[in-house]
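anyone seen this seq b4? input:
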Amino acid sequence: MSFIVRRITLLVVIAITAVSFTVSTAARFGGLQAGMQEALDDKPFLENERIRLREVVLVAAVNTPADRAEDLAQEAQSLYDRKKYVDAAKIYRQAAEQGDAAAQARLGWMHVTGEGMAKDYEKAVKWFRQAAEQGEAGAQANLGWMYAKGKGVATDYSEAVKWFRKAVEQDNAKAQSGLAWIYATSPIPKYWNAPMAVAYAQQAVSKGPESWKLVNTLAAAYARNGEFDKAVMTQQKAIRLLQSDTGYDARKKQQRLEESQMRLERYRQRQPYISLKGH
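predicted toks r here
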């Protein structure tokens, strides 16, 4: 429950209690208008009503640990949106330590990206895991990718698939793409599943048709399924989307473009792509 919602609830409770006081007055003194002055003169009655109102207000104003953590997470999100990453990270950490799953997931991601702190994949895995165990779909997907890429943990496709599947149950596009990537490109043949790779990749792209990563995975899935003409066309689209992506510095974008071009050449040679890490 947010700060604003709690305050509205408190006002409503006070209003209801005031009505209750009026009803009590009328019932005790035989009518509202006639009994109001008599009620005000009855000190024991007024004291009992005052105590009852105070107890009701105290109950309504209770700020549980979960409420406080949610308030902190909202404050941190406001700072994050304004790109005040260092301040946001401090408050996210407070909320995360109080068990807020959204804050744990965001803090894990900030450890991956280095926003407001040094990159630390092991700490990222720690926070992703805590949020994932609470059912936070984004954290489950990110934890799956950490296992798929071997960042902060040893590469473990079985664990990656486990966490991707949990997030897929919540219709998470990143997890759908993650499962498709493993089913299409894993260096371990037992994980290959071309039809499922295509199905999951298509589901992911339907949610993010302008994401070069999702489109890139769909191209790999088509290649694993032997649909190389579709793989070529889809990979070309992924490259165009990557070229217009402003989220990378020049060096990293060039590296991604070279990798994407290499995959395109494999598909033109009618060969599926085998990954040694996530894309």
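The mean pLDDT is 85. The first helix runs from residue 3 to 29. kinda curious what u guys think
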